[in-house]
Amino acid sequence: MKRLLILLTISFSVIHAQENAEVGWVARFGLAGGVNPVYLFPNVDPVNEQIKNAGLSGLSESGMIAWGGSGYAYIMFVENLRIGGIGLGGSMSASGRVGDFDKEVKYGYGLGGLTVEYTLPSIHRIAVSFGGIIGIASSEIEIYQSSSNYTWDNIWQKVSGNVMTREVSDRLTKTSFLIAPTLNFDIPLNRFIAFRIGGGYSFTFGGDWKINNGKNIEGAPSDLNSNTFFIQTGIYLGFFSY
User: Fold this and answer.
1) Where does 42-144 have alpha helices with state H?
2) Strand locations in the chain, DSSP E?
3) How far apart are CA 177 and CA 3, in angstroms?
């Protein structure tokens, strides 16, 4: 009887160890791609100072929504490490009639890059991953002012020197190198669909503000950059085994 109990105990231990090994291998595997609504909080104070001087109410200071997509895959030769990519963009605007002019200012933000994340192996059924994004970020400001209907002739008259105009159509851009630490939680609804919630902060370096045909802008505010905290959500399709 004792020998039977010992044999059963050994057999159970071997089977349990094999199951753990198989689960451990599967738990490090997964790949997915999906849509990412992202909420950003860029600093638009320097822009709003100028917008309000132009008679408009200003851009929202409580954040903006950007849309994009991302994907990833676990690389099997480094346990719990996954590599992927992300890209997103969004904009907001302020517009109105001021005197004889229709005015509008648009602010746009975008980023794209490589994602590298490590998933904590001690947490099961939910992938808790920390890592970062390495890539580029861009900010864009479009400024418009118009007072009349457009015809083919009066568009060209504005640059021919034959008429005086106060119409404005300028596009300001800045592109910078991006590093963004992130923390994400992926919650699988089943083996093939997962929901993501997470966030991070983008640190940007370098780049100059340019206007229209690539001319540098002198005296641009130093705090008008692409640094921002962001909240990321998403729905992913793929294969999940956490």
Assistant:
1) 45-53
2) 30-40, 64-74, 81-98, 101-119, 127-146, 168-188, 193-205, 210-211, 215-216, 228-240
3) 68
How open is the CA angle 137-90-35, to the nearest 5 degrees?
Answer: 95
Strand partners, 44: none
187/194 Cα distance (integer angstroms) = 5
Q: For residue 170, which of 39, 20, 54, 13 has the smallest C-alpha distance?
A: 54
Helices and strands (H, E) in the chain, number of each type: 3, 10
Backbone CA torsion sign across 157, 106, 170, 67 = negative
Q: 204 and 178 in contact (C-beta within 8 Å)?
A: yes
Q: Cα 38 from chain centroid?
A: 6
Q: What is the distance between the alpha carbons of residues 217 and 66, in angstroms, rounded to a whole number? A: 26
Both tokens of residue 91? 């904009």
**φ and ψ at residue 43, rounded to 5 degrees:** -85, 105
Nearest alpha carbon to residue 72 among 34, 125, 38: 34
8 Å CB contact between 131 and 72: no
Amino acid at 59: L
List the pLDDT tens digit at each of the 242 positions of the chain: 444 333 333 333 433 433 343 444 444 578 899 999 999 999 999 999 999 988 888 899 899 999 999 999 998 888 899 999 999 999 999 999 888 888 999 999 999 999 999 999 888 888 999 999 999 999 999 999 888 777 887 777 777 766 566 788 899 999 999 999 999 999 999 989 999 999 999 999 999 999 998 899 999 998 999 999 999 999 999 988 76
Distance of alpha carbon 143 from alpha carbon 104, whole angstroms = 6
